C-alpha cells in the first residue's frame, strides 16, 4: 500500500484534490492505516465512491505545431484526485499480477508490462523488418490511427470482455462501479464548465485506463493474424507488418482485406479507424518490381510514403 502512495509521482495539479499530493506523501506514514482501510473497503464492497469519479478535463494540444484554433487538435486529459489515483494504482497492481500469472496479456502488447516500453515495441518491429530484408523479402508497415480511442470504449463490451478473462465477483463489480457514474468538467483558461455525465470511455490520464483499453482491444489481434499479418502494440498504437516475396502481386488486396475487417471490428467495438492518419511504409526487397504501394479501404486510399513516425521515432523505407 505504501508503494501506491510513494510512487504516485509529482504533486497533483487537479483542483478537485482536497490537499496537494506532496503533502499527502509527506504524512503518508501517519495516514497509511486509514488509506489501507479505505482501499480495502472499496475493493471488498466492489464500489468506487462517487467523489473519486469526478474529473477536471484539461484540453491538451497534441503537438505544438498544430493549429490551436481547431478543437480536433486537442486531447482531453482527465485530471483526477490523488486519492482516486492511489486507489487505481492498488487495483492496477492486483489486476496486472492476475493477468500475468494466468498468461492473459497479449504477447504482442508492450504496454503495461514490467521490463517493456516503447523501445521494446520499436525493437520488435524493426527486428522483424530487418529479418525480412535479410531474407530478400519486401515488407509493408502499417501504423493504425484511431479517432478518440479511449473516449468511445463501450462499457458493456469491456465488462463482458473482462468476464471472459475470468474477472468476476467483487473485482468485476469494482470495475463496473469505476466505469459508471463518472462526471467531468472542462477547464479552459479561467472558465470551468458545469459537470457533465460520462457514459462511455475510459479516462485519459487515469492509472487504469490504458490497461483496460488494451484488454478491450485484445481480440483485434486474431482479426489481424487471420490475414497472415503480424502486429505489435504499445497501448493504443498498433503496428501491422506484412512481409512477402517480391513476386507476390496480391499484396495490396491482402492488406486491404485485412484493414477492411479491422474497420468492421472497430465499428462493432464503437471505435473508429482514422484512415486519413493511418500511415503506410513500404520497404521493397531485393529485385522487387515495384517501389510503392497503395491500398484501398472503405473507398479511401492509403499510399506508401518514404518515411513514417512510429512511437516518436522516424523510420524510412531503407531502415537507415
Q: What can you see in these coordinates?
A:
This is Reverse transcriptase domain-containing protein. InterPro entries: DNA/RNA_pol_sf (IPR043502), RT_dom (IPR000477). It contains 10 helices and 13 strands. It is an alpha+beta fold. The chain has 2 domains: 149 residues, no CATH class; 134 residues, Alpha-Beta Plaits, CATH 3.30.70. The strands form 3 sheets. The protein has a 6-stranded mixed β-sheet with strand order 7-8-3-9-11-10. Strands 1, 2, 4, 5 and 6 form a 5-stranded mixed β-sheet that branches. It has a two-stranded antiparallel ribbon with strand order 12-13. The longest helix has 20 residues. The mean pLDDT is 89.
Q: What does the secondary structure layout of this molecule look like, with pairings?
A:
Blueprint: H1 2-6, H2 21-26, H3 28-45, E1 54-61, E2 74-79, H4 82-101, H5 118-134, E3 138-144, H6 155-164, H7 169-179, E4 182-188, E5 191-192, E6 196-198, H8 209-216, H9 220-225, E7 230-234, E8 237-244, H10 251-268, E9 279-283, E10 294-297, E11 300-305, E12 307-310, E13 313-316
Parallel strand pairs: 1-4, 9-11
Antiparallel strand pairs: 1-2, 3-8, 3-9, 4-5, 4-6, 7-8, 10-11, 12-13
Helix pairs in contact: 3-7, 6-7, 6-8
In a nutshell, what does this entry contain?
The protein is of the alpha+beta class and 320 residues long. It has ten helices and 13 strands.
Residue-averaged pLDDT: 89
Largest sheet: 6 strands, mixed
Low-confidence stretches: none
Helicity range: 25-40%
Rounded to an integer in angstroms, the radius of gyration calculated over CA atoms is 22 Å
Tally of separate helices:
10
What's the number of structural domains?
2
- Sequence of secondary-structure elements: HHHEEHHEHHEEEHHEEHEEEEE
Strand order of the largest sheet: 7-8-3-9-11-10
- Terminus-to-terminus distance: 47 Å
Amino acid at each position: 500500500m505504501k508503494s501506491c502512495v510513494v510512487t504516485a509521482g509529482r504533486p497533483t495539479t487537479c483542483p478537485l484534490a482536497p490537499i496537494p499530493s506532496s503533502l499527502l506523501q509527506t504524512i503518508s506514514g501517519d495516514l497509511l492505516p486509514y488509506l489501507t482501510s479505505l482501499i480495502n473497503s472499496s475493493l471488498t464492497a466492489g464500489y468506487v465512491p462517487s467523489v473519486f469519479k469526478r474529473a477536471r478535463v484539461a484540453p491538451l494540444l497534441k503537438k505544438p505545431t498544430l493549429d490551436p484554433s481547431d478543437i480536433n487538435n486537442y486531447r482531453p486529459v482527465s485530471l483526477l484526485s490523488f486519492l482516486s489515483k492511489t486507489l487505481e494504482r492498488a487495483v492496477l497492481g492486483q489486476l496486472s499480477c492476475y493477468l500475468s500469472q494466468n498468461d492473459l496479456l497479449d504477447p504482442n502488447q508492450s504496454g503495461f508490462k514490467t521490463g517493456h516500453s516503447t523501445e521494446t515495441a520499436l525493437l520488435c518491429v524493426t527486428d522483424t523488418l530487418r529479418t525480412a530484408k535479410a531474407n530478400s523479402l519486401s515488407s509493408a508497415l502499417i501504423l493504425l490511427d484511431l479517432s478518440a480511442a479511449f473516449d468511445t470504449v463501450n462499457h458493456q463490451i469491456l465488462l463482458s470482455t473482462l468476464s471472459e478473462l475470468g474477472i468476476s465477483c467483487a473485482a468485476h463489480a469494482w470495475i463496473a462501479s469505476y466505469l459508471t457514474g463518472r462526471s467531468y468538467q472542462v477547464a479552459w483558461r479561467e472558465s470551468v464548465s458545469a459537470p457533465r455525465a460520462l457514459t462511455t470511455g475510459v479516462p485519459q490520464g487515469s492509472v487504469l485506463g490504458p490497461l483496460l483499453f488494451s484488454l478491450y482491444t485484445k481480440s483485434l489481434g486474431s482479426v489481424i493474424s487471420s490475414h497472415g499479418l503480424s502486429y505489435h502494440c504499445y497501448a493504443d498504437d498498433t503496428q501491422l507488418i506484412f512481409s512477402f516475396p517480391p513476386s507476390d502481386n496480391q499484396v495490396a488486396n491482402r492488406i486491404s482485406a485485412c484493414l477492411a475487417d479491422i474497420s468492421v471490428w472497430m465499428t462493432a467495438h464503437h471505435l473508429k479507424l482514422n484512415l486519413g492518419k493511418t500511415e503506410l511504409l513500404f520497404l521493397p526487397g531485393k529485385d522487387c518490381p515495384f517501389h510503392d504501394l497503395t491500398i484501398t479501404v472503405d473507398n479511401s486510399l492509403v499510399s506508401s510514403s518514404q518515411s513514417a513516425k512510429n512511437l516518436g521515432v522516424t523510420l524510412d523505407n531503407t531502415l537507415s
